[in-house]
């Protein structure tokens, strides 16, 4: 496994274009031939897709421009690229991403650690992008070829950390695409603003969001769906494995895969005997392979959800800085990428 380091700046269109150029080969080789890509592309002229496109163009014009740049950089029709970035806004048999997160309070602040699980065929084709927009805060984000930043794990230069887990509702109405809301949240100046953005209605697809900010003592778990959201202020430690677990959202029908259920059960088991979390423990949990068929750390080429762990991000969030580390191998305690976001 490896991640390409990217440094990108400019207008919204420029950022999208550079991300498109980066992902062009992988998208054409690995994503465009997929049945999921072809099916999504066929939906663009349908009422739901047109409604979502209108909402994005009207409410998030800069992200609309970024999507146009992405399409041009990929050398693909805008309609196909827009729909690929709405892949989680449709009910489809292909699960579309997984992910596992461990979060909690530590001695000097807050820890958020996250396994990014995605299509195995994208292993070695993803990036870690340091992006400086002409408008809005800069940020660092894991990026997939062909996708907007923000729906994976990221930290912006306001010290806001956001990680994302997939949710699979059985009913998804037209609304703002979930990946657009994630990209918009990276423009937030404060934790409250990020939460407001991610809770915005009308919303289409669902996600779980972990959120924290340097200088703020609050740590949040947010499950956001088209039918409502559940915001939990974490006081100790917590684990989430990409399905709804908040009691207040019990009425929302969802599909919980065997992997998602097994990972949540294993996380709960491992965390139940711990008084707190730290980086070493978080990595041990996220690298757990005790369940041979349905492990937390997923590298089997025939994973039942067609997902593999592509990277692990660890964020230590303090009073005036965020120390971040990214690992692409489970056999080492030395990160492949690391840095610090220092607040002025």
From TrEMBL:
Q: Which GO-annotated molecular functions does the record name?
A: transferase activity
Q: Does the keyword Flavoprotein apply?
A: no
Keyword Transferase listed? The answer is yes
Residues covered by the Peptidase C45 hydrolase domain? 109-325
One Pfam assignment: AAT
Could you tell me the keywords of this UniProt record?
Answer: Transferase
The record, for Gene3D superfamilies, names:
1.10.10.2120, Penicillin V Acylase, Chain A
Q: Which PANTHER family match?
A: BETA-ALANYL-DOPAMINE_CARCININE HYDROLASE, PEPTIDASE C45
What is the designated name of this protein? Acyl-CoA--6-aminopenicillanic acid acyl-transferase
What organism does the record attribute this protein to? Oceanisphaera arctica
């Amino acid at each position: 496994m490896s991640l390409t380091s990217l440094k990108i700046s400019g207008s919204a269109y420029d950022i999208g274009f550079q991300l498109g150029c980066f992902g062009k080969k992988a998208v054409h080789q690995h994503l465009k031939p997929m049945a999921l890509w072809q099916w999504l592309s066929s939906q663009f002229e349908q009422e739901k897709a047109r409604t979502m496109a209108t909402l994005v163009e009207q409410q998030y014009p800069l992200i609309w421009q970024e999507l146009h740049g992405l399409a041009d950089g990929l050398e693909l029709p805008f309609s196909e690229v827009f729909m690929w970035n709405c892949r989680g806004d449709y009910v489809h048999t292909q699960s579309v991403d997984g992910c596992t997160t461990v979060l909690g309070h530590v001695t000097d602040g807050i820890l958020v650690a996250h396994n990014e699980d995605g299509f195995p065929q994208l292993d070695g084709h993803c990036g870690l992008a340091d992006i400086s927009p002409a408008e809005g805060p800069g940020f660092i984000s894991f990026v997939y070829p062909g996708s907007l930043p923000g729906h994976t794990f990221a930290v912006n230069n306001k010290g806001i950390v956001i990680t994302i887990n997939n949710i699979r509702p059985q009913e998804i109405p037209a609304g703002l695409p979930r990946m657009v809301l994630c990209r918009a949240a990276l423009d937030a100046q404060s934790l409250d603003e990020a939460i407001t953005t991610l809770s915005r209605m009308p919303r289409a697809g669902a996600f779980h969001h972990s959120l924290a900010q340097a200088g703020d003592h609050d740590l949040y778990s947010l499950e956001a769906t088209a039918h409502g959201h559940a915001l939990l202020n974490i006081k100790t430690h917590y684990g989430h494995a990409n399905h709804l677990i908040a009691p207040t959202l019990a009425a929302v029908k969802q599909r919980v895969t065997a992997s998602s259920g097994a990972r949540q059960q294993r996380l709960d088991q491992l965390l139940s005997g711990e008084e707190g979390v730290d980086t070493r423990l978080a990595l041990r949990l996220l690298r757990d392979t005790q369940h041979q068929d349905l492990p937390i750390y997923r590298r089997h080429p025939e994973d039942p959800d067609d997902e593999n762990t592509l990277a692990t991000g660890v964020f230590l969030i303090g009073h005036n800085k965020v120390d971040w580390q990214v690992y692409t191998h489970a056999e080492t305690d030395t990160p492949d990428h690391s840095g610090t976001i220092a607040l002025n």
